[in-house]
Design a protein that fits this description.
Elements lengths: L1 H24 L15 E4 L2 E4 L4 E7 L2 E6 L5 H10 L6 E3 L4 E4 L5 H38 L5 H34 L2
Helix pairs in contact: 1-3, 1-4, 3-4
């Protein structure tokens, strides 16, 4: 019972870390990355689809993304979605594909992105701590119901404390890596 709870806690914490990593791939660094735009919502015949489902996205040059839609009639919709996004990029439409040129990041913009990264890291840490809190509450309920002993409760809390510390450390490592990537000129 305790093992299952701790395993579930680990899975939930790991899921929070994976969501963080996915979020951070969309934060722009000096290099072009398809992850920057692949989840961009695009209007398509009354439905909204992520760009990745409507086009191939490639990186022909270090600071350029090339978007080739599967259906040429969606070019205008993709262009509109890019302009409406907070990316601040101007699409170049040649009638067959869209090219996005990524300007070099200014020092001020880099610092701003680092602040965004730190905010996301903190959100992830809070999510991990919330999982720990929920599981400890469940464990204490089990102890009250005499399903586990006080010693088992203490052992489980210790395991959870270690697991949480391990997850927080991995979040910090991810954050440091992303920060270095952003500040790299």
């Amino acid at each position: 019972m305790i093992k299952e709870l701790i395993k579930e806690a680990q899975q939930r914490m790991q899921a929070a870390v994976e969501v963080l990593e996915e979020d951070l791939t969309a934060i722009r660094t000096g290099r072009a990355s398809p992850a920057l735009i692949e989840k961009l919502p695009v209007e398509y015949y009354g439905a909204t689809l992520p760009l990745i489902q409507m086009a191939t996205i490639s990186v022909p040059e270090a600071r350029q993304l090339l978007i080739r839609p599967f259906d040429a009639s969606t070019l205008k919709n993709i262009e509109r979605a890019i302009l409406a996004s907070e990316l601040g990029l101007t699409p170049n439409n040649d009638g067959k594909a869209i090219r996005l040129n990524l300007p070099p990041l200014t020092e001020e913009r880099r610092r701003e992105l680092v602040r965004v990264v730190h905010a996301r890291l903190e959100e992830c840490k809070v999510a991990v701590r919330n999982v720990r809190r929920d599981v400890i509450k469940d464990l204490k309920d089990f102890e009250k119901e005499k399903l586990i002993s006080e010693d088992e409760l203490e052992d489980a809390e210790e395991q959870l404390k270690d697991l949480t510390a391990e997850m927080i450390d991995s979040i910090d490592v991810i954050g440091e890596r992303k920060e270095k990537e952003i500040l790299e000129v």
